[in-house]
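## Example record

The block below lists the input lines for one assembly entry, exactly as stored, with component labels intact.
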Amino acid sequence: MTKTEKPTAHAGATAASQRESVLQDRIENIEKESGAKAVAVALHDGETDFDLHYRADRWFHAASTIKVPILLGVFAAIDRGELLPHSRVHVRNRFLSVVENVPFRVESGRDSNSAVHNSIGKMMRVDELAYHMITTSSNLATNLLLGVIGPESVTQTLKELHVDEGIELKRGVEDELAFEKGISNMVTANGLLKILVMLAEGKAFSPALSRRMMDILHGQEFNQGIPARLPKGTRVAHKTGEISTVAHDAGVVYLPKRKPYSLVVLTEWDQGATGRSRTIASISHAIYETLTGTAVKDE
Amino acid sequence: MAEAPIFPLRVVDGLTLPPEYRKALRPGEEWKDAVGVSRQLPRYFYEVPSWDTAMKIELATHFLLWEFIQVDVREAPALRTFPRYVPCAITLLAVCLERFREAVGTLVHISANGGYRSPSHRFSRNATPHAWGTAANIFRIGDTYLDNRNAIERFSLIARETLPGIWTRPYGTPTGYAEDHLHLDLGYVLSVPRDVNS
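Predicted structure tokens for the full assembly:
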């Protein structure tokens, strides 16, 4: 069906229903073959308004996908004029756990980017930290930004934007003491999807600020999930999240000559399980094929 | 006839500054420290017209003014733009650090937010010598990061042996201790330059 054709409501609903059924089956099969403990998928296609929600209200440990809501919180502070993109932040590797305010540090070995750690004692700009938080998932940058804006302001921002359902921000990252006590940031696929759709549609604060956030998400350097099995040249603005028991990817997929679609894939695993990124890539691949009616040959 | 001062910065009486500066700097006001003792905040400040100036002015042979006034977004907005104001006692701190540098024989790095910060800075919960311009947080000496007990205690001892009357924060994690820098200070020193007449 081309975009200009106008199907009857019934025909359109039938097509969407068929597509949903096909996709559900494909995702179920991928899930079964993967050995994952749980898989959740949420999809919104801006081109056709097609939605898919596959266990999309199940809660998962957020891992680094929580950095997307934090990015939103940072830009809310910029929108309010409390921060400027070039405001400077003291780079200090000392944070307080939400459990009894016990100090902790972010291990440099767990940040794939050394730029932030190399700036300890000095200052970095808010936009630099936001970039590192997303593109290389710097935990130090994340906790620094959260230290400036405060977790409660992120929660307030999500409420004001009506995207608070499905997101629970309770603490900074690498707060091991909190993790041991079962205090973790949690997300659902639907919760993250709402944020991505809002960003993709330019409705987060202003089109200009939404674009700036999307630009940062476009800089993502970990591309083994959603983008891995999409055609060459596909642009994906996304954020991954991995700890020992979960692997996620949440992003907006831009294809030529059509509106983008937003996709969240959350997965949970036994420790040491393999094939985590491959599973996310397979689901992304299935969705691409179903939405576009095009098969992609793996290279 | 008095000799013209070599030091190029103008001394200003904080009480004559515009309201947004007075509100942030609280010149001459009382402020309680962590144990409830009242301390009088500085009234006289050097006016720093630009970052360029701060980059050029040597407070001591190896310490430029900019190193003492690096503050982040937690500082009061009025004090993050130029002209900036720094308590006159900052020159005493610089001389002490120069002597400390001689003792350690290498570069001494003051951290961001670790030189002068105003009483309105978000880190300033109680009176702290940082708001008098008489404290420094040192995060690195030469190639050594001061983020462990051994490094902090080693350089703390050198500071106390070299600088009579200096106070250093003990190593540790509770409030009042430091675990990722060496804090040293001269206490709540007020400096009133000779050319102040009021």
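The interface with chain B takes residues 83, 87-94, 102-103, 105, 120-123, 126, 148 of chain A (CB under 8 Å). The radius of gyration of chain A is 19 Å.
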